[in-house]
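Troubleshooting log. The previous structure file for this entry was overwritten by mistake, so regenerating from the original sequence record. Sequence copied from the archived sheet and checked twice against the printout by T.R.
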Amino acid sequence: MLVRIEGIEEFELAGRVSRQAITDEVLRGIRNLDERKHIEPFLRDILADWNETPHTSTESSASSTQRMNSAPSCNSGH
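Regenerated output below.
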């Protein structure tokens, strides 16, 4: 399920920006931002979740495997 960005309370002002205000120059500037250096720190300042997020499928898989391996066992014999 996709959520429109203005549907998130912290970004409700984004809905007030007209499509015409998003020029090619603005899009070029956004596309030149580095995810880890510019976008992620900015979003972390706005949103409440301070967890590091994986950036590739390998990182996602490793993160999931680590969580599964560190979870308590359901077969504890009790």
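Residues 1-48 form one domain. Archived copy saved in two places this time.
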